[in-house]
Amino acid sequence: MGGQKFQYDESGGTFFYFLLSFLALLLIPSTYYWWPRKEKEDPEKTEKECQCNDCKKKKLVLQSSEPWKGTKQLFRKLLIISGWVVLVLLAYKVSQFDYEYANFDPYEILGLPAGASVSHVRKAYKNLSLVLHPDKKTGNEKAFLMLTKAYQALTDEESRRNWEKYGNPDGPGAMSFGIALPSWIVEKENSVWVLGLYALVFMVALPTAVGMWWYRSIRYSGDQVLLDTTQMYYYFFHKTPSMALKRALMILAASFEFEKKYNSEIIERPTDNEEVPHLIKQLYNLGEKNREKPLCYLYSIKARALIHAHLSRIPMNPSTLDKDRMYIVKKCPYLIQEMVSCVAQLIMLAYAKRIPRLPSIETIENCMKLCPMIVQAMWDYKSPLLQMPHITEENLKYFMSKKRSVKSIQQFSQLKAEERRNILRSLNDDQYNDIMKVVGKMPLIDFQVRTEVIDDEASNVITAGSIVTVTVTLIRHCMKKLFGDETVQEKTCVADSTSENNKKEGENQEHEEETKEQIKKPVWQKQQRKGGKKSSKKPGTKKQTQKETKPVIQQTVVKTNKKEEEKKPHLSEKKPISGDADSSGDENEDSYDEVDRSEDEGSQGDKKGSSREDDDDWEKFQTGLGKRERVLEGRSKQSHTVHCPHFPEEKQEYWWVYVSDRKSRTLLTAPYHVTALVQLEEVQLKFTAPRWPGSYTFTVCLRSDSYLGFDQSQEIKLDVKEAPEVPTDHPQWDISGDEAEGKTEGEPSDISEYTTDEDVDVDDVD
C-alpha cells in the first residue's frame, strides 16, 4: 500500500509498552505460585505427633536439611517486590507519554471555551506565546509548537477544515508501522555490541544449556536412576536367578549413585580410612572379601557397611559417617523400585522367550522386602513390634505369656485397652500414648479380589488362553478401627470414611458404588427377585445365598466355579428364536419376569437381554474411560505419612500388587506400584490363562514398602475350560494346507507352563 513505511521507535516509547506487558506476564503468575506462604499451624499437631526421642531427632534432621530455607524465601520476596516496583515505574512512565495529535483539541490548548471568536483566539495566542516562546526563560519548544498548531487550526480556513475532518490541522497522515524497539539498536555505532549479544545468547548460552540438559537426561532413567546402575541390576539378576536377601542388599549398595565418579554429591573424607574399617569390625557377615566387580570396590563396601549399620541401628559419628548414611538411605527406595522393575522385566522376558535362566519369585520378593527394612531400620528377622516407638528388645518379653502370644501389631491392636496397658506396664503414660497414636494411624487394608474375562460374553467363564483380569480393590482404614474400646469414638483418620456403612459425597463414593456393583450378583439373578411373578427355583440357589454372607474374596473364588454351573442353562435358553416361539418365550420368562405379556414373549426376551448387555458394556466403557482419564492426569505420590524415625526423610505409604504362581514359582503380572492409596484404590492386573484346561490356584499378593508384617495374600482358583473351536467355514478364515500342517506340528510343544491342582500329566492330555 502506498504511503506506508516501517520505522523504529525514535523516542523508545513503544519499547516501554513491550517491557510493561512482558514484565506483567511474568510477575502475575510468579507472585501467585512463588510468593512464600506461611503454613497454617495446627494447634493440635504436636498432640497428634509422636514425641519419642527418635522422632524429635528426625525433626531436627529435617530442619537442618534446609538451612537456606529462610534466606531463599527472603530473596524470593525481595525479587518479586523489586519486579512490582519496576512495573509501577514503567506504568507511570508510559502514562506520561503525550503524542502530538492524540485527542488534539485547539480550544483546550489555548485555554478557551469551544466556539470562541477569532479575536479571543488571537488574544489568547499572543498572551501564551509571550510565556511559551523558546527565547523566553519560561519557554517550552514542544508546548509552543502545539500552541502554533492550535492557532492555525482556528484561524486558517484550510487547517480548520483538516482539523474538523481528520482531527489533524496538517491533513491525513500516512499509515506507519513501528517496531517496538529503540532506534539505537540498528545504529551503525552499536551494531558490533548488538551482534555480540545475539551471538552470546543464541550461539553460546542456549546451546550450552541444551547440551548440559541432554547430557544429564541421557544418563538417567525416568525415575532418575543412572542407566549404568540399571544395566548393572540386569546383569546380576540374570547371573543369579535365585538371589538371597543379603546378596540383593550387596547389589543395592553397589549402585553407581554412591560413587563420586558418577555422583558429585558424594563426599569422600580422609577420616573414612579409619572410621569405615572400625565400623566393618562391628558388623557380621558383611561380605567385604567378595571379589566381584563392582561389589569389591571401596565405595560399594562403604555403602554396604552403612546400610548394615542402619539396619542394626548402630550409632555413628554424626558429622561424618552418619551424614553419609542418611544420604545413602534416602536414595534406597528409588533404587529398590528400579530393582523390582528390572527383575519383573527379566521374568516377563524369560517367560515370553522361554529363556532357561528365569529369575525366581523369591528374588523379586527379596528386593521388595529390602524397602520396609531400610525405611524402618531393622532386619527382616526382627519382631515387627519394634516398629512401634519406645519398644526395645527388652520390652518384647511382655508380649509373650502363657495366655497370649502377640507377634504382630494387628494382634496388639485387637486387644482390649486393659490388656494393652498391662503389656506396656513398664512404660509411662506419655510413652504409652505415643504408641497408641502411632499404631492408630498405621494402615489396615481391606484387600478384595475378583477375577473375570472382560472382553468376553461370559465374563465368569475362563477358557484356555483367554486374558484374565484380576481386579484388586484396596480400601485403607486406620489401625484404630481394631482397638475395640472407647478410643474408637475419638477422631479417626480420613480413610475411615470409606466404610460401607457411611455415605460420603464426591468421587470416593462413586468408586465405592462401582466396586460394590461389580461385586454384586449378575443381572439375571437380580431380576428374579424383582419380578411380580415368582420364578421357578433352580437347584443350587440356597447354597448360593449362603455363600453371599462370606467375605468378598470367597465370593470371588466361588463365582469363578459356581456361576459357570448356574449360568450354563440360562445361556442355552437365551438363543435366537427359531421355530417354536412359545417355548422360547416360556424359557425366557423364568429369567426375565418383567417382560410385557401383550407382545411376543420370545422376541421381548431377546430385546431385554440385549438391552441389559448393552447397559453392561456401556458401564464397562464408562469405567474404563474414567480410569484412562485418571491415568492421563498422572499418578499422585501422596498417600499417608509413615512413622519411620530412623529414615531421614518424610516417607509416604506405597504398595506393590501382583499375581504369582507359587507352585511353579513364577510371576504372572508385573508388580503394580500403588502410590496414591488415600482411601480407595482399584488396580487391574491382566495375564493369560493356562493353555490346558484344569483347576489352577494362583496367589494375589499385596506388599508394603514401608512397614514389616503388613503384607497380605489371597488365593484365587481358576477353573479353566477348553477354548471353543474357531469356525473354519468362513471364507476369510481359510487356512492353506501348509499352514495347517505347520500349526499341527507346533501344537505338541505348546505345553502349559502352569501347574494344575490335579498335577495333570501332559501325555494324558495329548
UniProtKB/TrEMBL annotation:
Which stretches does UniProt call biased (Acidic residues)? 583-603, 747-766
- List, alphabetically, the SUPFAM superfamilies matched: Chaperone J-domain (SSF46565), E set domains (SSF81296), Sec63 N-terminal domain-like (SSF158702)
What InterPro entries does the record point to? Answer: C2_domain_sf, DnaJ_domain, Ig_E-set, J_dom_sf, Sec63-dom
Keyword check for Lyase:
no
Name the segments for region: Disordered: 491-644, 721-766
Protein localization: Endoplasmic reticulum membrane
Output the GO biological process annotations, alphabetical, semicolon-separated: protein transport
Instruction: Return the Basic residues bias intervals.
Output: 527-541
Domain J residue range list: 105-167
What ranges does the record list as Basic and acidic residues composition bias? 501-520, 561-577, 626-636, 721-732
What keywords are assigned to this protein? Answer: Chaperone, Endoplasmic reticulum, Membrane, Protein transport, Transmembrane, Transmembrane helix, Transport
Q: How does it sit in the membrane?
A: Multi-pass membrane protein
Q: Does the keyword Ion transport apply?
A: no
Listed transmembrane segments = 15-35, 74-92, 192-215
What is one GO cellular-component annotation here?
endoplasmic reticulum membrane
The record ties this protein, via PANTHER family, to: SEC63 DOMAIN-CONTAINING, TRANSLOCATION PROTEIN SEC63 HOMOLOG
Q: Please give the name of this protein.
A: J domain-containing protein
